[in-house]
Design a protein that fits this description.
about 30% helix; Adenylosuccinate Synthetase, Chain A, domain 1; Adenylosuccinate Synthetase, Chain A, domain 3; binds 6-O-phosphoryl inosine monophosphate; alpha/beta; binds magnesium ion; binds guanosine-5'-diphosphate; 12 helices
Length: about 425
């Protein structure tokens, strides 16, 4: 039975949650595979707007079992806040499962994140300060605490105390404020007890679901160019959002996956520092930010904005084995007279078609643009390909031609039903 991965093809906030909400209708299991509460995934249902950080975006259907898989780093205060808020708004989280192998985030991770950012001075990454990098670092240096540890709450409390005391030494040395050990132990013991009923061996659960014939949706957070290995290092997150990360992050094998949906806006945004070849620092960039409401869901920061970059998208196809693309926020371009799409880079006088490997080379990339006429009419009411203005259809065809895979879904507004299923009309 099919397993589908949804992955951001740019620098995040592409509208993954809205597409996952759409696909979740056909997938009884939706599993998040990496990242943590650095993610902000927005789903708009009628008058209600939900911004999820940890809970998989399939939670709005009572037919869906939402799973936080082993590759996620879990901040328990955020998780339970989210569960309480969703429950109070009538969204049940009773079926939520949290992997015993997922690693936990603790207050010392957030202190380290802040200290590291301060220490970088001018070269700040612009992290979300949620402790994501330090939590994954602890996992890699094999001192992390897994969610399953709360099953034995007394030894969990001892582990929290030991880790907190050890980290306080480092925090103090770096000039930071130590974490109150007794408070942390008390807070996390209570949260640990609350976590117990949600714990699950999600690896076996997911394989059993596949064996029983259930289609599964794997939800990526962040995006391809924030990937620890393939993004614009060091201006990246500390996990692997690329589709390969969905295997490590869930325990499914590569041959379990048959569909990989890349999500791209009809333009590009980035929040935080790092190279961005098609960035617009003029009025056009401001227009994209204003019309697209490009402010971070988690941190409220203004996003940087620029034209669509097909060099990046072609690389995203390679890195993720993308089988199709969803192009979101087409409506944001409704008022533009002219629309530009980057089709190549000029680097040191030479035109290149492939995404460069080094950030310092990317810094020197000058975009080569194709220019298209805008449509200057409202696209939000479009529901079929033929409803889209001819100029918008031409833009989608250019993207397909440039990227080499079909576009299947087009977002034309923030509402749940604001989309077009595109099947390349003649
Ligand atoms: P994610 O992190 O990839 O899930 O994306 P975010 O939720 O952080 O940011 C996407 C924003 O765009 C949210 O405010 C969505 O409600 C909104 N959105 C998603 N798709 C569309 C679309 O097609 N058109 C418009 N105008 N807004 C959209
Ligand atoms: P979603 O899932 C956009 C960015 C941060 C920073 C870098 C590292 O909503 O698309 P981190 O806190 O992860 O160590 O920060 O990554 N970043 C995101 N940008 N969308 C996200 O998530 C992001 N999660 C992290 O701004 O540049
Ligand atoms: Mg987001």
């Amino acid at each position: 039975m099919p397993v589908t991965v949804v992955v951001g093809a740019q620098w995040g906030d592409e509208g993954k949650a809205k597409v996952i909400d759409l696909l979740a209708k056909e997938h009884p299991v939706v599993a998040r595979y990496q990242g943590g509460h650095n993610a902000g995934h927005t789903v708009v249902v009628g008058e209600e707007k939900y911004a999820l950080q940890l809970t998989p975006s399939g939670v709005f259907y009572d037919t869906v079992t939402p799973v936080i898989a082993n590759g996620v780093v879990v901040d328990l205060p955020t998780l339970f806040n989210e569960i309480d808020t969703l429950t109070s708004r009538g969204v049940s989280c009773e079926k939520l499962k949290v992997s015993t192998r997922a690693h936990l985030i603790f207050p010392w991770h957030q202190r380290h994140d802040a200290l590291a950012e301060e220490g970088r001075g001018e070269n700040k990454i612009g992290t979300t300060l949620k402790g994501i990098g330090p939590a994954y670092a602890d996992k890699a240096r094999r001192v992390g605490i897994q969610a399953g540890a709360v099953a034995d709450i007394d030894s969990f409390a001892v582990a929290v105390r030991e880790r907190c005391e050890a980290e306080n030494v480092l925090i103090t040395q770096a000039g930071g404020e130590p974490v109150n050990v007794d408070d942390a132990v008390a807070q996390f013991t209570a949260l640990g007890i609350r976590l117990q009923p949600y714990l699950c061996d999600t690896v076996n659960f997911l394989h059993d679901e596949i064996a029983a014939g259930s289609p599964i949706l794997l939800e990526g957070a962040q995006a391809t160019f924030l990937d620890l290995d393939h993004g614009t290092y060091p201006y990246v997150t500390s996990s692997n959002p690329t589709a390969g990360g969905a295997c490590a992050g869930t325990g499914l094998g590569p041959r379990n996956i048959d569909r990989v949906v890349g999500i791209s806006k009809s333009y590009t945004t980035r929040v935080g520092a790092g190279p961005f070849p098609t960035e617009l620092t003029d009025d056009l960039g401001d227009r994209l930010v204003d019309i697209g409401r490009e402010f971070g869901t988690v941190t409220g920061r203004r996003r940087r904005a620029g034209w669509l970059d097909c060099v990046m998208l072609r690389h995203a196809v390679r890195l993720n084995s993308l089988t199709e693309l969803a192009v979101t926020k087409l409506d944001v371009l409704d008022t533009f007279e002219t629309i530009r799409v980057c089709t190549g880079y000029r680097i040191d006088g030479h035109e290149v078609a492939n995404y460069p490997d080094l950030p310092e080379v990317l810094e020197r990339a000058e975009p080569v643009y194709a220019e298209l006429d805008g449509w200057q009419s409202n696209s939000t009411s479009a529901r079929t390909p033929d409803d889209l203005p001819p100029q918008a259809q031409a833009l989608i065809r250019l993207i397909e031609e440039q990227v080499g895979i079909p576009v299947r879904i087009i977002g034309v507004g923030a509402e749940r039903d604001d989309y077009v299923l595109w099947d390349s009309p003649a």
